Amino acid sequence: MSVQVVARIRPLLDKELDKDTIVRAEPSVEGQPANLVRIPNPKNEAEEFSFAFNSVYDMATSQEELYATEVAPHLKSLFKGLDVTIFAYGVTGTGKTHTMRGGLKLAERGVIPRLLSGIYRRGKKIRKDTNEETQVTVTLSYYEIYNDKVYDLFEIPEKRTLAGLRLCEKDGKTIVVNLSERPCADLKDFEKLYIEANNNRSTAGTKLNAESSRSHAVLMVKVIQTTGDSCLTSTASAIDLAGSEDNRRTENGKERMVESASINKSLFVLSQCIDAIGRGDKRIPYRESKMTRILSLGQNNGITIMILNLAPLRSYHLDTLSSLNVSSRAKRIEVREIENEVVFTQPPRKTGLSGTSISRQPLRP
Ligand code: ADP
Ligand code: MG
């Protein structure tokens, strides 16, 4: 399966109602759901570019609709042992945080709280269906990557070292060393932890001069299903990337230069990885930034959904085009759908579970 790339056009904000909109969602076949984004050529407005995606959501799309069509269908796979990665990409102000985190009101809740809610509901059902034989445990980790350094958002800012946490590779996955993991029994627990950590994010911001739009935020939800002495673990990751705007065009002061360079670099490396994978290169430059190492597009097993957030305004024209270009190339990336293996807390008995043989497919056929 390839990376699913979906585009979402945000509505105009109250203060923008008099502004010109230049981005449209359209179906390529009449009567079908929209899958094209159309935008004028900035050099010749009589001409239009169109970019095709797996699906395109227009301004009227609700949080519920986006979650129900793009994310909820993958819960089943998550519980079968596949890792699921959802990341929001786009220029600052296009709706990444709105899409991932959303507002506090029920209808405004974003992908992340809905995902957690879905996980708990499914966990409960599995417990019930197995007569409590299978137990489902959920843990959370949450960190940000800022200036190519990893900071644990469950640690209070005072306890963090400026150098950040190290990455290492284990079983083909990139792991953040010493990242804390919090048990999270229900949605109430989640909301408390999540709000606390997001506050840490803004506090850290003052200390480190970061703004949320300048760091990548990674939430990892580990789902552990235990049946007797066997255990199946899979992870859902939800990532709110830093703004993809071209910082050379925005007027950044000197103090922002280091930040800008590293944001530009990680997002630039991401686009290079996308291109290298698309070309079928042997060497993909994942290791050139922490964000791309962690994201490991096309390398991580499971399901990857890229949400491209777009603002319909003319003032975003060039940045919108550049993010459309990057993300439309990401569609071609193939992802291996390999389930995580069942592990045994004790050596398996001869009569034990036999669901461990999993065929490995090559990355590229
Ligand atoms: P980003 O995280 O990409 O910088 P935000 O999520 O902060 O962007 O969105 C910018 C503004 O637009 C916020 O005020 C947000 O509430 C609003 N917004 C974004 N998407 C939507 C949407 N689909 N519906 C309503 N308001 C939205
Ligand atoms: Mg944001």
TrEMBL record:
Give the UniProt keywords, A-Z.
ATP-binding, Coiled coil, Hydrolase, Motor protein, Nucleotide-binding
Q: Which domain of life is it from?
A: Eukaryota
Q: Quote one Gene Ontology molecular function term.
A: plus-end-directed microtubule motor activity
One GO cellular-component annotation of the UniProt record comes to:
microtubule
Biological process GO annotation list? microtubule-based movement
Cite the Kinesin motor domain residue spans from the record.
Answer: 2-333
Q: Which residues take part in binding ATP? A: G90, V91, T92, G93, T94, G95, K96, T97
- What's this protein's family per the entry? Belongs to the TRAFAC class myosin-kinesin ATPase superfamily. Kinesin family.
**What name does UniProt use for this protein?**
P-loop containing nucleoside triphosphate hydrolase protein
To which species is this protein native?
Calycina marina
State the organism's lineage.
Eukaryota, Fungi, Dikarya, Ascomycota, Pezizomycotina
Q: Tell which residues of the whole protein are contained here.
A: 1 to 365 of 727
